[in-house]
């Protein structure tokens, strides 16, 4: 098609413009692919780390439940030992009373079987019975004191183990809360990062579409060509028709754009801009057909 003033473009000019369009399309395609790869990597990392955090939470909960069961079993064993001791004491006291009753019965039988003249004075027997009662009471008192001491010891041990378990549970609860807080912060940070990358990806896509439209407009002759004093020709493109470079103005604030710049050297933007459309909507000089960066 003809350029400004109806002058037909040469095959060389058309080939140069098509080559420029092809380079820009490839560069923008590389940008999009790089952004997609970065976004997929972030999603994969987020999924992996979320799974690790979930596994850690399950492990912490299992440890806490195991600790609860262990302390409960220990307390039940102590209570069982106390009940066994009480039962043994009751059995022993019953046996002792039974034995004393048997001795008294035997004594009475023996007294009835001996002649009256050989029987011991009733006062002596009463005194012996009193002594026996005192001995029995002392023995029972001793046994009860031992049982109370055993009960106090068991109570102290149960209280100590309960305090240890409560401290352990509080520490585990705090640890689990910390893990949950870290997981929540990571989720928010990853979501924010994905949102930012999606916005950048959209900006590059829109820039690619606008640049493609601009190149087609230039090929279709919608923008005039100006002849410079030096003999070079340049396209004159209005400011409104020149899309804003999404890489400009980001500096180090964009991780993905920083990676792209380091990898592709601004994807040839600096070299092509010197031959293309200026950001201010004016025209810049370039031999033959001009392009945009």
From TrEMBL:
<protein>
    <submittedName>
        <fullName>Uncharacterized protein</fullName>
    </submittedName>
</protein>
<feature type="compositionally biased region" description="Gly residues">
    <location>
        <begin position="277"/>
        <end position="293"/>
    </location>
</feature>
<feature type="compositionally biased region" description="Basic and acidic residues">
    <location>
        <begin position="10"/>
        <end position="22"/>
    </location>
</feature>
<feature type="region of interest" description="Disordered">
    <location>
        <begin position="1"/>
        <end position="22"/>
    </location>
</feature>
<feature type="coiled-coil region">
    <location>
        <begin position="128"/>
        <end position="157"/>
    </location>
</feature>
<feature type="region of interest" description="Disordered">
    <location>
        <begin position="273"/>
        <end position="293"/>
    </location>
</feature>
<keyword id="KW-0175">Coiled coil</keyword>
């Amino acid at each position: 098609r003809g350029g400004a003033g109806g002058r037909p473009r040469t095959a060389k000019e058309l080939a140069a413009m098509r080559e420029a369009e092809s380079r820009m399309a490839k560069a923008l395609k590389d940008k999009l692919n790089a952004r997609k790869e970065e976004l997929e990597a972030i999603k994969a990392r987020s999924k992996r780390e979320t799974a690790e955090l979930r596994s850690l939470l399950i492990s912490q909960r299992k440890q806490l439940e195991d600790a609860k069961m262990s302390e409960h079993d220990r307390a039940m064993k102590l209570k069982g030992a106390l009940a066994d001791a009480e039962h043994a004491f009751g059995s022993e006291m019953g046996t002792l009373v039974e034995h004393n009753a048997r001795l008294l019965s035997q004594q009475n039988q023996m007294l009835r079987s001996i002649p009256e003249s050989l029987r011991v004075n009733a006062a002596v027997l009463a005194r012996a019975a009193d002594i026996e009662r005192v001995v029995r009471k002392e023995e029972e008192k001793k046994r009860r004191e031992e049982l109370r001491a055993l009960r106090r010891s068991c109570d102290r041990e149960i209280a100590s183990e309960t305090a240890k378990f409560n401290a352990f549970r509080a520490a585990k609860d705090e640890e689990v809360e910390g893990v949950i807080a870290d997981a929540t912060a990571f989720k928010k940070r990853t979501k924010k990062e994905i949102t930012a990358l999606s916005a950048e990806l959209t900006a590059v896509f829109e820039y690619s579409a606008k640049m493609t439209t601009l190149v087609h407009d230039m090929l279709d002759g919608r923008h005039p060509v100006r002849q410079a004093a030096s003999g070079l020709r340049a396209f004159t493109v209005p400011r409104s028709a020149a899309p804003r470079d999404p890489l400009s103005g980001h500096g180090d604030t964009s991780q993905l754009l920083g990676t792209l710049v380091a990898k592709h050297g601004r994807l040839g933007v600096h070299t092509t801009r010197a031959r293309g459309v200026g950001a201010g909507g004016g025209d810049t000089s370039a031999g033959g057909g001009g392009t945009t960066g």
